[in-house]
Amino acid sequence: MQITEEENFPGFPDAVMGPELMDSMRKQAERFGVELVPDDVTAVNLAAVPRWSGPAAARNDPSLEGHRSMTVTLGILALLQAKPGKGDELAAFLKAGRDLAVAEEGTVAWYAFKIDDTSYGIFDTFATDDARTAHINGPIPAALAKVSADLLASEPSIRTVDLVAVK
User: Fold this and answer.
1) Which of 28, 42, 104, 162 is in the most buried spot, having the most CB atoms within 10 Å?
2) Using CA atoms, how far apart are residues 60 and 140, in angstroms rounded to an integer?
3) Domain boundaries, the chain
4) Residues near 69 by Cβ (< 8 Å), separated by ≥ 6?
5) pLDDT bracket for residue 9 (50, 70, 90)
6) Which residue has the higher pLDDT, 128 or 68?
7) Are 41 and 81 in contact (CB under 8 A)?
8) DSSP H or E stretch at residue 129
């Protein structure tokens, strides 16, 4: 099939020729680190590949081993108990921690949450052990250590976890 002109494609106010559209889409994908593999798809078995496990080819073709995958299997769960009357200060500290988490390349997702007026937590996800280790040794735990005597009623419960399912 050859596309010569695409009418009404979002982002293009005028009709765009198929090759120009494909070139723009390729450049956009490469900008975000996608490696394009020019090859023919001869079969797809969607039942054999769990969601979010990365490209089907990487699962079935050993020559593609080492290619980046979207798999997120590692996490950290930290539970924090604020001293009486310090819950709002702990919440403010956690909100400020978001900027530190954003700066971490290996942290896929970072959540700070409130359970009740004195119970809070942090949940992070990572694709690699190296990323998780870098986070554990990074600025967020260091900052928490500095304020823990003032804000926390007890030592934080910090556990590494392995994710068993991701949506």
Assistant:
1) 104
2) 38
3) 5-64, 74-162
4) 53, 54, 55, 58, 127
5) low
6) 128
7) no
8) helix 129-136
User: How far apart, in Å, are the Cα atoms of 107 and each of 35, 76, 78?
Assistant: 22, 10, 15
What is the chain's mean pLDDT, rounded?
80
3-state helix, strand, coil in the chain (%, to 5): 35, 20, 40
Per-residue model confidence as pLDDT tens digits over 62-92: 544 554 444 788 999 999 999 999 999 999 9
For 74-162, CATH gives 3.30.70.100
Contacts of 74 (CB under 8 A, 6+ apart): 125, 126, 127, 128, 129, 131, 132, 160, 161, 162, 163
* Continuous segment of H or E residues that includes residue 125: strand 119-126
Assigned token pair, 120: 């809070």
* Separation of alpha carbons 33 and 107, rounded Å: 17
* Residue 114 falls in which region: left (phi positive, over 0), alpha (psi -120 to 50) or beta: beta
CA atoms of 60 and 38, how far apart (whole Å): 17
Question: Phi then psi for 44, rounded to 5 degrees?
Answer: -135, 125
16-17 and 157-162 as β-strands: parallel, antiparallel, unpaired?
unpaired
